[in-house]
Amino acid sequence: MENEIFKLRKEHVNFKKLLNLLDAQLDFLHRGETPDYQLMTDILYYMTQYSDLIHHPREEAIFALLAVRDPRVAENVAELTKQHHTIGDSGARFYGKLENIINGESEIMRIEEIETDGCQYGTILRAHMDKEEQGLFMIAEKLLDDDDWKKIKSETRSKPDPIFGEAIEVRFHLVCDQLAQLVSDK
């Protein structure tokens, strides 16, 4: 039980590290400098392919079971689930814009639009993760038993984390290099 919540919290820490990298690139943009669009694209690819497709469905399975165990959390479950979809849609749109820039297929996009989209994405995702951790994660630790966790595990898809797992996917080597640089700069 606690291992699953621990894993979700650890993933949140990792997502925040990636959002910090994204913020650094958005700061370049804000200062009129050229950001590393490939790095930004890789971060959003990860967020749309791992966070949105693996992490969020696991949370939703937990939250759905919590709503059955304690109907008082149903409204909170509905809100957080809706936020998952909003975050996913926002991330996919932002990723698409970044891909267009990388591929040179983009109409001229205003720098402010990219900066605004990126800042909004990061702000919404951070607030969302904080709400999960301070609310439903704590309730899940109290209410769900070993059978519940087995059920959740059997109902959700699993995939090794392509950045923070044992084997780093080739696409994410630049991201990992930047994460290591961030750690060494501190």
Low-confidence stretches: none
Write down the CATH class.
Answer: Mainly Alpha
- Share of helix among residues? over 70%
Shape: globular
Give the beta-strand count.
0
Order of helices and strands: HHHHHHH
Q: Provide the structure class.
A: mainly alpha
Q: Report how far apart the termini are.
A: 34 Å
Look at the structure and give the mean pLDDT: 92
How would you sum up the major sheet? Answer: none
Strand content: under 5%
User: How many domains make up the 3D coordinates?
Assistant: 1
Topology, element by element:
Elements: H1 2-30, H2 37-69, H3 74-103, H4 111-134, H5 136-143, H6 146-155, H7 173-185
Task: State the gist of this model.
By secondary structure, this protein is an all-alpha fold. The chain has helices spanning 2-30, 37-69, 74-103, 111-134, 136-143, 146-155, 173-185.
Notes on the structure:
This protein is mainly α and 186 residues long. It has 7 helices and no strands. α3 packs antiparallel against α4 (111-134). 25% of the residues are buried. 79% of the residues lie in helices and 0% in strands. It has helices at 2-30, 37-69, 74-103, 111-134, 136-143, 146-155, 173-185.
List keywords for this structure.
Four Helix Bundle (Hemerythrin (Met), subunit A); 7 helices; mainly alpha; globular; 186 residues
